[in-house]
Amino acid sequence: MKSLTFLLFSLFISFNIKAVTISGISIPDTVSHTDQSTKLILNGAGIRSKFFFDIYIGSLYLEKKHHTAQDIYNAHGEKRISMYFLSKKITKNKLVADWNDGFENNHSKAELLKLQSQIDQFNRLFIDVKKSDIINLNFIPTTGTFVIINEKTMGLVEGDNFFTALLKIWLGDDPLDSDLKKSMLSKK
């Protein structure tokens, strides 16, 4: 009986302690926006690369795992995109240029026109980042998208529609990095 109890305990521990490690960085299995908010689970994580340079580790957290972009767009509840930077320095202008490319590549001109004031507000919330900095984009339904850099809240973009538009930068038909998209969708 003791050996069965030990085996069950060992299985329980092994399922709850696992974490993903990418480029030597441990990516948590679960996160919460606050102590009172819902526990989010890691849907998938990978590296954003450009011209053979690793820029950041991107991870997607949801209340329940989904493996298609459409299911993620339609999923209700809290969500998070987290970026752990691997590059020495990325300027605010470079970040904003990448976001803008992602928005333009995954939205029609009419959609962009409707989103433009939110995109402008979003872009104003950023600063230069460096290696080991973390950007969290936290979505809370009926509130909006909080931009948090190194645990400091930079601001809020109101509206539920904006986070779906933001997700398309990584999960849309023309994502910033197709390998990262597959990793965020947990498709290797």
Give short descriptive properties of this protein.
188 residues; alpha+beta; two-stranded antiparallel sheet; 6 helices; 11 strands; 38% helix; 32% strand
Structural class: alpha+beta
Percent helix among the residues?
A: 25-40%
**Which CATH architecture is right?**
3-Layer(bba) Sandwich
Q: What would you call the shape?
A: globular
Number of alpha- plus pi-helical segments:
6
Please report the distance between the alpha carbons of the first and last residues.
Answer: 40 Å
Order of helices and strands: HEEEEEHEEHHEEEEHH
Determine the strand fraction and express it as a percent band. 25-35%
CATH topology-level name: Chalcone isomerase
Mean of all residue-level pLDDT scores: 88
- Quickly count the domains: 1
Report the major sheet: 7 strands, antiparallel
| CATH class annotation | Alpha Beta
Nearest-angstrom radius of gyration?
A: 17 Å
Number of strands: 11
Low-confidence stretches: 1-17
Order of strands, main sheet, comes to: 3-4-5-6-9-10-11
